[in-house]
Every structure is written in structure tokens, then in C-alpha cells.
Specification:
This protein has three helices and ten strands. By secondary structure, it is of the alpha+beta class. The N terminus is likely disordered.
């Protein structure tokens, strides 16, 4: 019995040792694989860095850069551009479709568009129009106009465009009172040169009312295109009162 137990124990120990050797070999193989994977990953990262450096070096290589900038030729006025291809029927129709009806008499030799604000007025129901002077000289000691609280009004203006197309013309009006600022911005659009003025009316608004709404306001009105060129920039003061002034009645 004891001999049988001894044989079983010896066999069991041999089996355990064999399993232990197999486990150790598998662990070494796994470690070797991980090490190889780590080396491969590092090589791949280094290769990527080398590729990026090569791209950067190529970008910095003066031989790959053009010797001179693209020459678009001298700028032309709109009148010159329209007359340039007047004999080409397809180009002429394309320009007419793009620009609309262009008054040739409003075109000049200038390259830049010119916008002139001809009239700026405040239209109130049942009241004469309040026409703002243009050109305007700011006077901080006096109000440019007076509005009655709770009255409905709209801004109306007319302007002419000459020499070239004006793109992205914007109207902005900023009003301050007691540290509170309110800004209105209206995108008017793109306008072609023409002799007759464009007329534009903004949506009707209502002046604020109440004790705290009455008093003096500061304001800035601008007409600016999408290039940031200002065609009118005026600062002024106006008042809101309980009643209309007697001299406007």
C-alpha cells in the first residue's frame, strides 16, 4: 500500500514539475512576443515621426516653393471688365446674369465702389418725417431729434452706388442709455451701380415707454460693407419724452 502511494506521489510530482516547466516556457514565449510587439510599435512610431519630419522638410525646401506669386494682372474697374468681353455674347450674358442690370452711366474709372447716403429719415405714423441732416455734425449739447414714448416708427433711407458693385452692405445702429447698450444690425445686400437711388425701409419698431425709458440717448449709425469700409459713421444724441415736441405738431 505504501509502495503504491509512493509511486502515485512520484508520478504526481513528475506531472507537477512538467506542468511547471510548460507554464514557464509559455510565460517566456508570451514575454518574448510582448517585447517584439513593443519594439515593432516603437519602430512604427519612429517611422511616422521620420515621415512627418520628411514632409516638414519638404515644405521648408525652398526648391519646392514657387519662385514668384501668381500674377493676376492689374486690377480693373467694373466698366473696364464689362467692356473687355463685350463682343463675347456668352460672357456678356453671364455678366448680366451675375451683376443684374448695370447702369453704364453710373460707372466710372475707379476700381472701388462708392456708396452715398442721400437721405436718412424717421417715419412715424401720423407725423411728418424726421429728416436727419447729411453730412452730419455731432453736437453733444443738443439732441438731433425727439420721439414720443410708445410711438411706432421705422427708419427709411436712400443711397446711390457708383463705380463698382458694393458687396454685403450692412446697416448698424447702436444705442446707449445709463450703461445699457442695444445694437441692431441689418444685412441690406449687394448692389450694382446705377444712377437712380436705392430706397430701403426697416421694420417698424416701438419706442420704449415709462419713467425710466424717458431721457437722453447716445447713438451711432453706420453703413459698412463686408470689407469693413464705412460709407456713413455718425454719432448723435436723441431724446424720448412723454409727448411730442410742440414745434413738430
Amino acid at each position: 500500500m505504501s509502495a503504491a502511494v509512493g509511486i502515485f506521489s512520484a508520478s504526481k510530482q513528475d506531472g507537477l514539475k512538467k506542468n511547471e516547466r510548460n507554464n514557464n516556457e509559455e510565460a517566456r514565449e508570451e514575454k518574448k512576443k510582448n517585447n517584439n510587439k513593443f519594439v515593432d510599435d516603437n519602430e512604427a512610431k519612429n517611422n511616422n515621426v521620420d515621415d512627418e519630419n520628411e514632409v516638414d522638410e519638404e515644405d521648408d525646401d525652398p526648391k519646392l516653393k514657387p519662385e514668384k506669386e501668381l500674377d493676376l494682372g492689374p486690377p480693373l474697374s467694373l466698366k473696364e471688365q464689362l467692356e473687355k468681353d463685350k463682343d463675347d455674347e456668352s460672357l456678356r450674358r453671364w455678366k448680366e446674369q451675375l451683376l443684374g442690370s448695370v447702369d453704364m452711366s453710373a460707372l466710372g474709372e475707379m476700381e472701388a465702389a462708392e456708396v452715398k447716403i442721400e437721405r436718412l429719415s424717421i417715419v412715424c405714423r401720423g407725423r411728418p418725417d424726421i429728416v436727419l441732416p447729411i453730412p452730419f455734425v455731432s453736437n453733444p449739447k443738443s439732441s438731433l431729434f425727439i420721439l414720443k414714448e410708445g410711438s411706432r416708427y421705422r427708419l427709411k433711407f436712400s443711397f446711390t452706388v457708383s463705380h463698382n458693385v458694393v458687396s454685403g452692405l450692412n446697416y448698424t445702429n447702436t444705442v446707449w442709455k445709463s450703461g445699457v447698450r442695444e445694437k441692431t444690425k441689418v444685412m441690406l445686400g449687394t448692389f450694382s451701380p446705377r444712377k437712380d437711388p436705392y430706397t430701403y425701409e426697416l421694420e417698424e419698431e416701438t419706442t420704449p415707454s415709462g419713467l425710466f425709458a424717458r431721457g437722453s440717448y447716445s447713438a451711432t449709425t453706420k453703413f459698412v460693407d463686408d470689407d469693413g469700409k464705412a460709407y456713413l459713421d455718425m454719432n448723435y444724441h436723441f431724446e424720448i419724452k412723454k409727448n411730442w415736441p410742440s414745434n413738430n405738431s
